[in-house]
């Protein structure tokens, strides 16, 4: 979530099309301490993104498990209902079968022989038709109940399989999250130590708000999100924070777009999968810019910022820096941009 910092990235090239940039003055050479700080920040950012993805995947699996559990309950009820229907129709079929074996079945001829009149004969024939229809209906009902019971048993078996898979996946993700949290805490500690090794002048260069200018985006959600982000200039960086006083990079963009009525996930990698892709030569204020490790692999995205104006973006950089408008060249390798409004 944190990024390769401003000074470092003047040495890096951007992947894909070059970003439009404002004139940039020559920068002093990066010290070893600053390089270490930038490198460790990027490494921690990658681990943080891995953690966020694992947490999002766990939520998905938990939701899947809840649905499967509901499906399992519904299938079990369907089986119980089918069994009750089977019992009912088995009784009806049994009655008709028993009556037939006792000689109760009457033919049309026998009905004629025992009828005392024409009307009596017609009444007896009508009764025979009802009995035959009822017997056929009972048989059809029994067959349907048996089929429903079989389908319910199949659904139960499938739901149980899915439930076990979701449970196993959730358990693995829980273990992964614990491991990644441990690793992230170790990385954050290293970043803080590297930050403390910077010279006083380097620390001053990192701190404080440098850009207090006003910027406007296109009317609508994009500008609302932009103004929300700009209003947070000076907010401190905090790992996994989503506001309103502290942010990490995707926490800031998520919070800003939430203020505009657009829901985004708390992960730069997941945000990259949403919205509409836009090329670097058609950027508008409010578009999100994504940065990876130079491989062009979306799974290696570790930072996101919001486009403000040519050559500028607003972002939550990393430990020791504040939310501010800064150079778009401050985050390593540009992999792409996304638009969520308009």
UniProtKB/TrEMBL annotation:
Q: Does the keyword Ribosomal protein apply?
A: no
Keywords, alphabetical: Coiled coil, Hydrolase, Protease, Thiol protease
Top-level taxon = Bacteria
Domain NlpC/P60 positions: 219-342
Of which family is this protein a member?
Belongs to the peptidase C40 family.
What start-end ranges are recorded for coiled-coil regions in this protein? 142-194
Q: Which residues cross the membrane?
A: none
Indicate what this protein is called per its UniProt record: NlpC/P60 family protein
């Amino acid at each position: 979530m944190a990024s390769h910092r401003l000074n470092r990235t003047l040495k890096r090239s951007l992947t894909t099309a070059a970003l439009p940039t404002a004139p940039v003055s020559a920068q002093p050479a990066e010290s070893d301490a600053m390089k270490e700080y930038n490198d460790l920040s990027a490494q921690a950012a990658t681990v943080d993104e891995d953690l966020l993805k694992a947490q999002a995947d766990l939520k998905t699996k938990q939701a899947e498990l809840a649905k499967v559990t509901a499906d399992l309950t519904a299938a079990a009820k369907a089986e119980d209902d089918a069994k009750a229907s089977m019992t009912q129709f088995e009784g009806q079929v049994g009655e008709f079968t028993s009556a037939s074996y006792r000689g109760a079945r009457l033919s049309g001829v026998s009905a004629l022989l025992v009828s005392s009149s024409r009307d009596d004969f017609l009444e007896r024939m009508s009764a025979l038709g009802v009995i035959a229809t009822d017997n056929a209906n009972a048989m059809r009902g029994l067959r349907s109940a048996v089929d429903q019971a079989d389908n319910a048993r199949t659904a139960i078996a499938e739901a149980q399989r899915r439930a076990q898979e979701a449970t196993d996946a959730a358990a693995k993700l829980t273990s992964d999250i614990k491991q990644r949290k441990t690793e992230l805490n170790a990385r954050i500690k290293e970043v803080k130590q590297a930050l403390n090794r910077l010279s006083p002048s380097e620390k001053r260069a990192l701190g404080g708000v440098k850009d207090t200018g006003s910027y406007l985006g296109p009317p609508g959600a994009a500008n609302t999100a932009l103004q929300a982000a700009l209003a947070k200039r000076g907010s401190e960086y905090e790992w996994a924070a989503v506001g309103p006083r502290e942010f990490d990079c995707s926490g800031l963009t998520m919070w800003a777009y939430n203020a505009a009525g657009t829901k985004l996930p708390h992960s730069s990698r997941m945000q990259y999968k949403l919205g509409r892709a836009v090329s670097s030569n058609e950027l508008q204020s409010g578009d999100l810019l994504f940065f990876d490790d130079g491989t062009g692999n979306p799974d290696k995205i570790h930072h996101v910022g919001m486009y403000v104006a040519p050559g500028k973006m607003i972002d939550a950089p990393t430990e020791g820096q504040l939310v501010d408008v800064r150079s778009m060249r401050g985050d390593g390798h540009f992999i792409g941009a996304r638009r969520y409004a308009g």
